[in-house]
């Protein structure tokens, strides 16, 4: 009982520090592509900022070894300090010749995402009793999605008024404050003696965890299928907007509606996991996402609005459930590598899908493409649902 009473303040401190860091992250979300569009005049150059952000996520298992090898608190503090430092070059961005700085910082933010959220996933497992893991993960994910509603608008407005340097300073301040708060966490007890370092064994440990669990393997099928559908939808959503006779800026409205759905999904996730288990929740959420992707093809504004909200619900519930499944299924000494390996698999799926989607939307009607993707996601949902329990 005393341990659980102590754990609650520790989790609140972790949660507060994470929220502070996410305020800065969310404000920076739209700024790199907007800045690249302003610097180069190229929409393609702007879109590549997402690709550079995803590249470190594809190499996530290397970060997982760091998370498992060193104290989580230390990794979080160092990651936040380095992330803030990596933003400083944005203060020098002035003309088109500085394009490489924006890409380099985007890649650094991708690496920051892997380290921070991988470490947080591991720390939540350390700090929270098993029966409360789903609630803790839901709380983190709900506030993260909530910040995505207002944060990007704040960042875009600040960029318009004061430039990219002002947004970088805001994000830098959030990282430094978060580092101070993470540093207040109680030091971890020493773990068991570490075995001799063998590069291949260490880097593939997380993949072996995933491959060795039937439940985690089923969840990977669902999550990666959703990432594929989401990657293609990144490009198709502009065609959907055209089909509704709306300007390209309407995509921002749909993104906000998706964020509202994500918050609702975060609020519902704990109950779903409690009732159906992690795989059941992943299956149910994936099914919602599949129906929503297909619904985006309906050429009617009310249907598209409902579908946009559904994609948010359908992404968030499986994300929370898969994190909880990893925490419950994986030894503490491997949780960092398992989490980052999972992120790497998903990141590769998404990068491939974004690239392929940019081609597909030009040759296949979205009214055929999106229902086909929705059917694929529903098949993955059924496969995952059958493994529950």
TrEMBL record:
<feature type="transmembrane region" description="Helical">
    <location>
        <begin position="341"/>
        <end position="362"/>
    </location>
</feature>
<keyword id="KW-0472">Membrane</keyword>
<dbReference type="InterPro" id="IPR011701">
    <property type="entry name" value="MFS"/>
</dbReference>
<dbReference type="Pfam" id="PF07690">
    <property type="entry name" value="MFS_1"/>
</dbReference>
<dbReference type="InterPro" id="IPR036259">
    <property type="entry name" value="MFS_trans_sf"/>
</dbReference>
<feature type="transmembrane region" description="Helical">
    <location>
        <begin position="279"/>
        <end position="298"/>
    </location>
</feature>
<feature type="transmembrane region" description="Helical">
    <location>
        <begin position="304"/>
        <end position="321"/>
    </location>
</feature>
<feature type="transmembrane region" description="Helical">
    <location>
        <begin position="197"/>
        <end position="216"/>
    </location>
</feature>
<feature type="transmembrane region" description="Helical">
    <location>
        <begin position="43"/>
        <end position="67"/>
    </location>
</feature>
<keyword id="KW-1133">Transmembrane helix</keyword>
<keyword id="KW-0812">Transmembrane</keyword>
<dbReference type="GO" id="GO:0005886">
    <property type="term" value="C:plasma membrane"/>
</dbReference>
<dbReference type="InterPro" id="IPR020846">
    <property type="entry name" value="MFS_dom"/>
</dbReference>
<feature type="transmembrane region" description="Helical">
    <location>
        <begin position="153"/>
        <end position="185"/>
    </location>
</feature>
<feature type="transmembrane region" description="Helical">
    <location>
        <begin position="223"/>
        <end position="241"/>
    </location>
</feature>
<feature type="transmembrane region" description="Helical">
    <location>
        <begin position="247"/>
        <end position="267"/>
    </location>
</feature>
<keyword id="KW-1003">Cell membrane</keyword>
<feature type="transmembrane region" description="Helical">
    <location>
        <begin position="74"/>
        <end position="93"/>
    </location>
</feature>
<feature type="domain" description="Major facilitator superfamily (MFS) profile">
    <location>
        <begin position="1"/>
        <end position="190"/>
    </location>
</feature>
<feature type="transmembrane region" description="Helical">
    <location>
        <begin position="99"/>
        <end position="124"/>
    </location>
</feature>
<feature type="transmembrane region" description="Helical">
    <location>
        <begin position="12"/>
        <end position="31"/>
    </location>
</feature>
<dbReference type="GO" id="GO:0022857">
    <property type="term" value="F:transmembrane transporter activity"/>
</dbReference>
<feature type="transmembrane region" description="Helical">
    <location>
        <begin position="368"/>
        <end position="385"/>
    </location>
</feature>
<protein>
    <submittedName>
        <fullName>MFS transporter</fullName>
    </submittedName>
</protein>
């Amino acid at each position: 009982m005393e341990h659980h009473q102590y754990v609650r303040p520790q989790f609140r401190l972790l949660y507060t520090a994470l929220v502070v860091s996410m305020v800065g992250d969310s404000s920076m979300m739209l700024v790199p592509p907007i800045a690249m569009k302003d610097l180069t005049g190229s929409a393609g150059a702007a879109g590549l900022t997402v690709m550079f952000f995803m590249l470190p996520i594809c190499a996530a298992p290397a970060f997982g070894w760091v998370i498992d090898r060193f104290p989580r608190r230390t990794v979080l503090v160092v990651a936040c300090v380095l992330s803030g430092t990596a933003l400083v070059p944005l203060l020098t961005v002035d003309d088109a010749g500085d394009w490489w700085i924006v890409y380099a910082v985007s890649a650094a933010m991708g690496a920051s995402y892997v380290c921070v959220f991988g470490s947080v996933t591991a720390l939540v497992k350390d700090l929270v009793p098993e029966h409360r893991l789903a609630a803790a993960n839901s709380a983190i994910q709900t506030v993260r999605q909530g910040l995505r509603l207002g944060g990007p608008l704040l960042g875009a407005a600040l960029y318009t008024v004061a430039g990219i340097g002002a947004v970088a300073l805001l994000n830098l301040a959030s990282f430094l404050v978060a580092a101070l708060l993470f540093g207040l966490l109680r030091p971890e007890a020493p773990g068991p003696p570490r075995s001799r370092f063998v590069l291949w064994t260490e880097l593939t440990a997380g993949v072996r965890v995933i491959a060795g669990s039937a439940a985690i393997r089923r969840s990977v099928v669902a999550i990666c299928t959703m990432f594929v559908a989401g990657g293609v939808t990144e490009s198709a959503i502009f065609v959907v907007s055209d089909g509704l006779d709306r300007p390209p800026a309407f995509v921002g409205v749909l993104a906000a509606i998706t964020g509202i759905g994500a918050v609702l999904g975060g609020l519902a996730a704990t109950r779903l996991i409690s009732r159906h288990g992690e795989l059941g929740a992943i299956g149910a959420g994936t099914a919602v996402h599949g129906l929503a992707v297909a619904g985006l093809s309906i050429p009617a504004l009310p249907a598209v609005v409902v579908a946009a909200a559904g994609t948010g619900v359908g992404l968030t519930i499986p994300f929370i459930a898969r994190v909880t499944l990893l925490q419950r299924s994986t030894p503490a000494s491997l949780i960092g590598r398992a989490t980052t390996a999972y992120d790497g698999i998903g990141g590769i799926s998404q990068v491939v899908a974004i690239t392929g989607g940019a081609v597909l939307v030009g040759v296949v009607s979205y009214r055929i493409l999106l229902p086909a993707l929705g059917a694929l996601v529903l098949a993955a949902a059924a496969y995952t649902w059958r493994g529950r329990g």
